[in-house]
Amino acid sequence: MADAAPRLQGLFAQVLGAPLPVRIRAWDGSQAGPPGAPILVVRNRRALRRLLWKPGELGLARAWVAGDLDIEGDLYATLDLLAGLIWERGEDARTLAQALRDPEVRAAVRGLVRLAGPPLPPAPPREEARSPRRHLHTKRTDRRAISHHYDVGNDFYEIVLGPSMVYSCAYWPAPDSTLEQAQRDKLELVCRKLGLKPGQRLLDVGCGWGSLAIHAAREHGVSVVGVTLSQEQAAYARKRVADEGLTDKVEIRVQDYRDVRDGPYDAVSSIGMAEHVGADRYLEYAADLYDLLEPGGRLLNHQIARRPQRDETAYHVDSFIDSYVFPDGELQPIGITVTQLERAGFEVRDVESIREHYALTLRQWVARLEADWQRAVRLTSPGRARVWRLYMAASALAFEHNRIGVNQVLAVRTPESGASGMPLRARTWGAPAGG
């Protein structure tokens, strides 16, 4: 008798304390759950074993990456339905230990164990990072973490990012603008906030595939040093620089920002890089960038932020993101970022939240990945493509629902005279290049 799906619906409802808001289709062909709802496909018993051995997000992530779980229907709608039940139950939600005090829950778990089959733990998918967490954010561990995320093939990133090859939040003039236009507007906004002028020197920390360095040199006449820890990014960026005829203006290095010694610079950009720094190293990061600037020089720090918690010591890194996307990455509230920059000596002059812009950007990246799915799988692996699809879709929803944000913080190494060099009405940011 094909009855795995109704049994799973009942067992999950007992364990989670609420019915699943999606249908289940199990490996035996059975289905159960709300009619017309998105379908959670449980392809095999191994998915259950993953959840039993690693209850919660990591077990779900392993089952998704391995292809043991899938979703039929609207991915965003499904994640929204599941989020409150599984991922966002809040500080007052029952922990697994508390839930297991309930005899009915214990009986449900025993039922899942019987349904799951042989109790041996499945091996984690090969896409899972295995980064020891006792030596966070040394130069060696940072190189390994960056390589895990970025050295997966430039061709793959071309599919996701498009011709701009910018892997950070775009700046949308309108929701129906093209991704390429929105990314160009973001690059231009950064340059204008930094007040770049011909002949100045810009340090681009975490330069990615060289897009900002090329734009700043070509449109604003500055000399740029871009640093990255990714060998693949650097090779790609150097070719782009050469193709643009900008080798006299742009130098791309494989170098840790902590090893840059050829300051001072007139401006420093750090776009989507500071999330990799780590809370314990953040003041050091801010101080290093401060020391690399001329008096009066500007820093533009573009960084994802999380919401503050009532108990900040309870913050923990998201296990799916840590294991599959950004090993050792950490988010902090915008208030802490501003405070750390000020402690390092900066005068913070402007903070702009562009949270909704990242949701639009991520939805575009997901659409590009889905439109060229088979090629993306061939260029990486089925598991890697599934990682990117899930994390970008879930992140889009997180930005839309204000669970995370992204901010551009403009700070100045203001000299002792107090002359910051900032215009009285900075938000105009001057005229666009060529305007």
From TrEMBL:
Residues 117-140 are annotated as: Disordered. Residues 156-397 form the Polyketide synthase-like methyltransferase domain. GO terms for biological process: methylation. Its EC number is 2.1.1.-. InterPro entries: CFA/CMAS (IPR050723), CMAS (IPR003333), MeTfrase_dom (IPR020803), SAM-dependent_MTases_sf (IPR029063). Belongs to the CFA/CMAS family. This is Cyclopropane-fatty-acyl-phospholipid synthase family protein. It comes from Streptomyces olindensis.
